[in-house]
Amino acid sequence: MDNKKRIFVVDDEHDILELLELQLSKANFAVKTFDNGTDLLETLKSQAPDLVILDLMLPDIEGTEICKTIRNSEKYKTLPIIMLTAKGEEVDKILGLELGADDYLAKPFSPRELVARIKAVLRRSETNQGNSDFLTIGDILHIDKRKFEAVVNGEKVYLTTTEFKILELLASHPGWVFSREQILNHLWGNDKIVLDRTIDVHIRNLRSKIGEAGDYIINIRSIGYKFEV
Q1: The pTM is what?
Q2: Which residues contact 42 (CB under 8 A, 6 or more apart)?
Q3: CATH code for the domain of 84
């Protein structure tokens, strides 16, 4: 049985699709490419990938709308997404992360860097799914690492892989102050290739999603964050 991780790539530039199919296949991934968003969304109805590489500028549907559709899907709320786009300004990167992307890479890009980012995102996802512990914080927040699930006041909250890992780290060590650098190391380890600023974006998204429990996450000015009940 083929145990290769399945990567779906959507981009309207065929030379990029060919390059990514070649490079990701060499990295031992099973790759399926799409040159438009409609075909991607249609295929997702019957086939489940392990990760999606998503271009923002597509001919039929904006990549941002595709990201929203995936994140609003019951089946794919936690599907890892890496945005790959020519929009490289910081505001565009922050928007991508706010929409629920796990990572963001601007064109032109290094195929080796993309492969490293894919592996890092997949490792985070696998770690979450393989941990059998769970946490209960007061009567408000329950974290089940076995199901990769957070429950706030009895309601399930679906988080991205990155958001869940941050919540798990902070909630597992109440009162401890973690610098942005420490949080990045927890998320990426030796593959750390993102900026401290992205942590603030992920935590802002996390707080918004977990509602009342978001008050437990405290910003320590000029240092980082802690979880305080």
Answers
A1: 0.61
A2: none
A3: 3.40.50.2300
